[in-house]
């Protein structure tokens, strides 16, 4: 039993280290230092949670705006969950970006980014992205970059401000399990996005 417990702990630690290792040298906090890339991909989340503002949402929009105004990206792809008519992350992100002054015709929506793996793989296979800048919190960027590298993509991550509340702590705890799933999806299960469909074209 002890051996099994130790093996389990070791596997969890390895899966989490794999994400950190994959993202080394590819994460940026300073907008002046990140290489320019045509497309920035913002990972989805909703704007409100339990009738409160979702700071993950605000900080991701902040980060996308910074990259845009610095000329580091020319197109923004917002990828998130649109699983029912009352819940549409991409539309909320697009509206928030337009309110910040980003032209609507420079924003594209991926409505089937139901999870990080879906957003990454659809970015490559549906939107034709082999090079892209990911925009989300650092812990999420690490996992997304692991998934992207497993799919032969060249990526960097721009780190949005993290959330230093109790809710943020819960998210970080859940991230441990998400990285285990990440490793299994890539190395054991061969998981694919729930929805693919036809190719889509991004703004030129």
From TrEMBL:
Residues 55-156 form the DUF218 domain. It holds the Pfam family DUF218. Coiled coil: none annotated. Keywords: Signal. GO terms for cellular component: plasma membrane. InterPro entries: Cell_Envelope_Assoc, DUF218. Residues 1-15 form the signal peptide. It comes from the Bacteria. PANTHER family: INNER MEMBRANE PROTEIN, PROBABLE PERMEASE, INTEGRAL MEMBRANE PROTEIN. This is DUF218 domain-containing protein.
């Amino acid at each position: 039993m002890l051996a099994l417990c130790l093996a389990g702990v070791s596997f969890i630690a390895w899966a989490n280290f794999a994400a950190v290792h994959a993202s080394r040298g590819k994460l940026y906090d300073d907008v002046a230092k990140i290489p320019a890339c045509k497309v920035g991909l913002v990972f989805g989340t909703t704007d409100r949670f339990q009738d409160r503002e979702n700071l993950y949402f605000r900080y991701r929009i902040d980060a996308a705006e910074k990259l845009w105004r610095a000329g580091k990206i020319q197109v923004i792809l917002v990828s998130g969950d649109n699983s029912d008519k009352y819940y549409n992350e991409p539309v909320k992100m697009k509206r928030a970006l337009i309110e910040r002054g980003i032209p609507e015709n420079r924003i594209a929506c991926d409505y089937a980014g139901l999870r990080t793996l879906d957003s990454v793989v659809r970015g490559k296979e549906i939107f034709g992205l082999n090079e892209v800048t990911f925009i989300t919190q650092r812990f999420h960027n690490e996992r997304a970059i692991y998934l992207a590298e497993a799919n032969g993509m060249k990526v960097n991550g721009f780190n949005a401000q993290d959330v230093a509340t109790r809710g943020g702590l819960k998210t970080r705890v859940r991230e441990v399990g998400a990285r285990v799933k990440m490793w299994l999806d890539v190395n054991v299960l061969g998981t694919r996005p729930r929805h693919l469909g036809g190719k889509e074209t991004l703004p030129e």
